[in-house]
Amino acid sequence: MKPAPFAYHRPATLDEALALLGAEEDAKPLAGGQSLVPMLNFRLARPSALVDLDAVDGLAGIRVEDGVLVVGAMTRQRDLETSPHAFPLVRDALGFVGHTATRCRGTVGGSLVHADPTAELPVCAVALGAELVTNRRTIPAEEFFVSVFTTALEPGELLVEVRFPIPSGRTVFEEHAHRHGDFAVVCVAVAGERVVLGGVAPTPVVWDGGELETVGDLFSPAGYKREVAKALVEKALAA
Amino acid sequence: MIGIAVTVNGTHHERRVEPRLLLSDFIRHELALYGTHVGCEHGVCGACTVLLDGRPARSCLTLAVQADGHEIETVESLAEWAALHPLQQAFHEHFGLQCGFCTPGILMTASFFLAQNPDPTEEEVRAELAGHLCRCTGYAPIVDSILAAAAVLRRS
Question: Which among A155, A161, A224, B135 would be 20 to 30 A from B84, CA to CA?
Answer without folding.
Answer: B135
